[in-house]
Write a structure and sequence with these properties.
The structure holds 2 protein chains of 2 kinds. By secondary structure, chain A is mostly helical. Chain A contains 15 helices and 2 strands. Chain A starts with a helix and ends in a 27-residue tail after the last helix. Chain B contains 15 helices and 13 strands.
Chain lengths: 355, 435
C-alpha cells in the first residue's frame, strides 16, 4: 500500500493534483469566495473551453510536436458560424458541421506538412495560424451583417447544472472517451508508442505517420469544438475570439505532466492543469490584484509548479526531490539535462522511416 | 537528381510557397488594388459649394439656414439637445456644416468604392489624404473610415485617399505610417493604438511638412506644432467627472462602484478614473470597491467581472469606458445569476442595447448611460488637416464634449449589426451597401 502510494506520488501525472490540492487549501484560507456559487458559475464555461482545446494540444504534444494555430482556428469557427448560420437556427446544423470539417481539414494539412515533409511543427502551425486568420478576415469582409450566433445555440450555452455549465459535461465526455481510447484500445497504445519512440514503433509495424497526422487532425477538431462552444457563449464572436488560447493550452498540458519531447500523457492530468490555472487566475482576480501583480504571481506559481513537477519525477526521497528541483533551475549539481527540461522535437532528423 | 535531393528541393519550394501565402494573407493595405478613376467633378458641385461656404466662413457657423442644419447635426451626433453648436470649436462646427449636406449619389458611389479599396483616386484636386489606422478590424473602425472618406470627398481639393491598417501590430503600424510618408501624402489622420510608440514616425511626417492629426484616442506626449498639427479628442478627465456625476444622479443614496477599463495603465483609463475618484470623494456614501482591466475584449470583461462578482461586495454601478466589451459584463452577471446594476459606459453598441431590452424586466436596477459612438470626430481631423493646408490656423487641440444619455426603449435596432451606433453620419442608404 505504501509502495503504491509512493509510486502514485512519484508519478508526474499525480503532481498536478498535489499542487491543485495545495492551491485549493490556500484559496480556502485567503479567498474562499473564489469557490462560491456565483464565481464558479462564471468560470466553468471558459474552463471547459480551455480543457477541450488543451485535450487537442495534448494529442499533438504526445507526438513530440506543438500546435500554435489554436487561436486562429477558434476565431475562424466563430466567424464562419456567424456567416453560414446567418444568426438563425435554420442553418445551425449546417454551420456546425462545416466549421468542424474545416477545423479538421486544417489539422490534416498541418499533420501532412509536419509528418510527410518533415517541417518544424512550431513553424508550420504558426504559419498555418496566420494563413487561417488571413483567410478568415477576408471571408468575414469589412462588415458582418450577422453579429449573433443562432438563438438556440446561445440559449444552450447559457445553461448550467448548479454551478457547472453544460460545457463542463461536454468536456467530461470527451475526457472519458479520450482516456478510454488511450489506455484501453490497441490504437491508443500504438499512438503512445508513436510518441514515445517513433523509430521503435515503426520497426514494430506501427503506422507512425498515420497516427501523427491523425493526432493533428483530431486535435484541430477539438479546437473547433472549443471555438464553437466559446462562440456560443460570448454570442457575438469577433476577430479576437481565440487570442487567449495561444499558450494557455501548452501551459496546462505541461502542468499536467506531459513532456514536450513527446510520449505518454494523461488527459486527466491535463484537466487537472486546467483546473489549477483557472482557480489560480480566479483567486488573483477575486483578491483584486492589479493585472501586473496577477501576471507576476502567475509566473512565479507556474515556475514553482514546473520545478515541483521536475522534482517529483523519479524522486525516491526528499533529498532526491530537492536535487531534481535544483537541476531544473540549472544548478551545477551534475551532468546532463535537468529532468523535465525537454526540447521540442522538430520534424527534421527524427529518422522516421517510411511506412 | 537523387531522391533525397528532389525531396529537399520540394520541401524548400513548399516552405517558400507557404511563406508567400503567409505574406499575402498578412500583407498590410499599402499599395492596394487598382485606383478608382471615376471623374466626379460635376457631381461634387453641391458638396463643393457647401465646403466653400464652410471654409470661407471659418470661425462662424454660416447662414441661418446652415446654423439650423448644423444644430440638427450636433443634436444627432451628441444624442442630446444639450450641446449647442455655438459652444463648439469653429473647426468642429465647420466639419459638421459640411457633414450636414447629404452627399450626391455619385459621391456615395465613389465613397463606397474608396471604402472598399486601399487607394482611391477622386479624379480632381491635389491633396492626398493618408489614413493610418492602428487596428481597423472592427465595425467602429470601418464606420470611421467611411466617415473620413465622406468628409474628404466633400472637399474638392482631395485627389486621392490612401488607407492603411496596422491590424494591431506596432511594427506594421509604423511601417504603414512610413509608407504614407514615402507616397507623398499631404496629410495623415489616424487612430494610433500604439500610442506614444508612434511619436517618432509622427515627428518624421511633421518635419516633412505633412500635418498629422490623431483622433479619438489621443497620443500622450505629441506636441502640437512639433509632432502633430492638433489632436481631436475628448477631455478624459471631464468624461470621468461626467461619469461620476451621472452615477451620483442615478444613485443619490450612494453605493459600491466598480471601475473597468481596457489594457492595464492605458492613459484614457487612468485619466477618467482619477477624475471620477475626485468627484466621488466630494460626496458621501460612494465607494470604489473594485477596479479591473479587461483588455478591451468581451471575454476579458467577462473574466474581470467574474472576479469582481466573486469578491462578494455590493455593486451598484459599473463604470467602463467601452460599450462593446460591456456585453461581457452583462454575460458575467447572467451566468452568475446576479442582478445587473447601473452601467455607465462610453460609445454605443447596438447589441448591448439589445441585451438591456431583453433583461431590463427582470433587473429593475439595470440602467445604461452611454455616449455617442464618436465616429464623427475623425471627420474633424481630416477637415482640420485640409484647412491647415489651405493656410488656416488650427488650434493645438480640438476638444469635443461627450455627454452621457440614458438608454431608452426603441434605441435598439434589431436590423442593424451589433456594433452599430445611431449617431453615425453615414447616410442610411450607404450603410445598407456597406454590409
Amino acid at each position: 500500500m505504501a509502495l503504491a502510494i509512493g509510486r502514485l506520488v512519484q508519478s508526474r501525472f499525480a503532481a498536478i493534483w498535489m499542487a491543485l490540492a495545495a492551491l485549493i487549501l490556500v484559496t480556502l484560507a485567503i479567498g474562499p469566495s473564489t469557490l462560491n456559487e456565483s464565481s464558479l458559475s462564471t468560470v466553468t464555461p471558459l474552463a471547459a473551453v480551455l480543457a477541450i482545446a488543451a485535450f487537442g494540444q495534448t494529442l499533438v504534444i504526445m507526438t513530440g510536436g506543438i500546435d500554435l494555430s489554436i487561436p486562429s482556428v477558434m476565431t475562424m469557427v466563430g466567424i464562419v458560424l456567424l456567416k453560414v448560420s446567418g444568426g438563425t437556427d435554420d442553418n445551425l446544423v449546417k454551420a456546425i458541421v462545416l466549421v468542424l470539417a474545416v477545423s479538421a481539414m486544417i489539422g490534416f494539412v498541418d499533420g501532412v506538412l509536419i509528418t510527410m515533409f518533415g517541417l518544424n511543427a512550431l513553424v508550420v502551425t504558426l504559419a498555418m495560424g496566420q494563413l487561417v486568420l488571413g483567410i478568415t478576415l477576408w471571408y468575414r469582409g469589412a462588415l458582418l451583417a450577422e453579429s449573433e450566433v443562432p438563438p438556440t445555440l446561445a440559449r444552450w450555452a447559457g445553461e448550467k447544472v448548479y454551478v457547472f455549465s453544460y460545457f463542463v459535461f461536454v468536456a467530461l465526455v470527451l475526457l472519458v472517451l479520450l482516456t478510454i481510447a488511450l489506455h484501453h484500445t490497441p490504437a491508443g497504445r500504438r499512438f503512445v508508442a508513436t510518441g514515445t519512440n517513433p523509430t521503435a514503433a515503426a520497426v514494430a509495424g506501427v503506422r507512425v505517420r498515420a497516427y501523427q497526422i491523425g493526432a493533428y487532425t483530431l486535435a484541430a477538431l477539438f479546437y473547433g469544438v472549443a471555438g464553437l462552444l466559446l462562440a456560443s457563449f460570448v454570442r457575438s464572436p469577433g476577430e479576437d475570439l481565440g487570442g487567449p488560447y495561444l499558450l494557455a493550452t501548452v501551459v496546462v498540458v505541461v502542468l499536467g505532466g506531459a513532456s514536450l519531447a513527446g510520449g505518454p500523457a494523461s488527459f486527466v492530468a491535463t484537466a487537472g492543469g486546467v483546473t489549477f490555472i483557472v482557480v489560480l487566475n480566479q483567486l488573483l482576480r477575486v483578491k483584486g490584484l492589479s493585472t501586473g501583480y496577477q501576471v507576476l504571481t502567475q509566473g512565479i506559481v507556474l515556475a514553482l509548479g514546473m520545478a515541483f513537477l521536475a522534482g517529483v519525477k523519479g524522486a525516491s526521497s526528499p533529498a532526491v526531490l530537492l536535487r531534481n528541483v535544483r537541476r531544473f533551475f540549472g544548478a551545477r549539481s551534475g551532468a546532463g539535462r535537468a529532468p523535465g527540461n525537454d526540447q521540442i522535437r522538430g520534424g527534421d532528423g527524427r529518422g522516421v522511416p517510411a511506412n | 537528381m537523387s531522391t533525397s535531393s528532389k525531396s529537399r528541393l520540394f520541401r524548400s519550394a513548399l516552405v517558400a510557397a507557404v511563406g508567400a501565402l503567409v505574406v499575402a494573407a498578412c500583407g498590410g493595405d499599402n499599395g492596394g488594388k487598382t485606383a478608382a478613376t471615376t471623374a466626379a467633378a460635376a457631381t461634387t458641385a453641391s458638396a463643393t459649394t457647401v465646403a466653400g461656404t464652410a471654409t470661407t466662413a471659418a470661425g462662424t457657423s454660416g447662414s441661418t439656414a446652415a446654423a439650423g442644419d448644423v444644430q440638427a447635426v450636433v443634436d444627432r451626433v451628441f444624442l442630446t439637445k444639450d450641446i449647442k453648436a455655438a459652444d463648439l470649436e469653429p473647426t468642429i462646427v465647420e466639419t459638421l456644416t459640411v457633414a450636414a449636406t447629404d452627399p450626391s449619389p455619385e459621391t456615395k458611389a465613389l465613397a463606397l468604392k474608396c471604402w472598399k479599396e486601399s487607394t482611391c483616386d477622386t479624379g480632381r484636386g491635389q491633396y492626398v489624404v493618408g489614413i493610418a489606422d492602428g487596428f481597423g478590424d472592427n465595425t467602429w473602425r470601418e464606420f470611421t473610415k467611411m466617415e473620413i472618406i465622406l468628409q474628404a470627398l466633400a472637399n474638392p481639393e482631395v485627389s486621392k485617399i490612401i488607407y492603411t491598417n496596422g491590424h494591431g501590430d506596432l511594427a506594421q503600424s509604423q511601417s504603414n505610417f512610413r509608407s504614407l510618408i514615402s507616397q507623398n501624402v499631404d496629410l495623415i489622420v489616424g487612430y494610433f493604438d500604439a500610442g506614444d510608440a508612434m511619436l517618432p514616425v509622427m515627428r518624421q511626417a511633421t518635419a516633412a511638412g505633412i500635418p498629422v492629426v490623431p483622433y479619438v484616442g489621443g497620443v500622450p506626449g505629441a506636441e502640437a506644432g512639433q509632432t502633430v498639427l492638433t489632436q481631436v479628442t475628448p477631455d478624459n478627465c471631464v468624461n470621468g467627472r461626467e461619469m461620476a456625476a451621472t452615477t451620483i444622479k442615478a444613485l443619490p443614496n450612494g453605493g459600491g462602484i466598480v471601475y473597468l477599463t481596457g489594457t492595464p495603465g492605458n492613459p484614457q483609463g487612468q485619466a477618467w478614473q482619477k477624475c471620477a475618484d475626485e468627484e466621488f470623494a466630494k460626496q458621501k456614501g460612494y465607494e470604489v470597491v473594485a477596479k479591473a482591466d479587461t483588455q478591451w475584449t468581451q471575454e476579458g470583461a467577462l473574466q474581470a467581472m467574474s472576479g469582481v462578482i466573486g469578491q462578494g461586495k455590493k455593486i451598484d454601478a459599473i463604470l467602463y469606458d467601452y460599450a462593446n466589451a460591456t456585453r461581457g459584463v452583462v454575460r458575467a452577471y447572467e451566468q452568475a445569476g446576479a442582478k445587473l446594476p447601473l452601467i455607465v459606459t462610453w460609445t454605443e453598441d447596438n447589441e448591448l442595447f439589445g441585451q438591456w431590452e431583453s433583461l431590463k424586466a427582470s433587473n429593475p436596477d439595470f440602467q445604461i448611460y452611454y455616449t455617442n459612438s464618436v465616429n464623427w470626430p475623425p471627420r474633424v481631423a481630416v477637415q482640420a488637416a485640409i484647412d491647415s493646408l489651405k493656410g488656416q490656423k488650427i488650434p493645438g487641440a480640438l476638444i469635443y464634449p461627450q455627454p452621457f444619455v440614458l438608454l431608452k426603449e426603441g434605441v435598439y435596432d434589431k436590423s442593424k449589426p451589433g456594433e452599430f451606433g445611431a449617431s453615425t453620419l453615414v447616410p442610411e442608404d450607404l450603410i445598407a451597401q456597406m454590409f
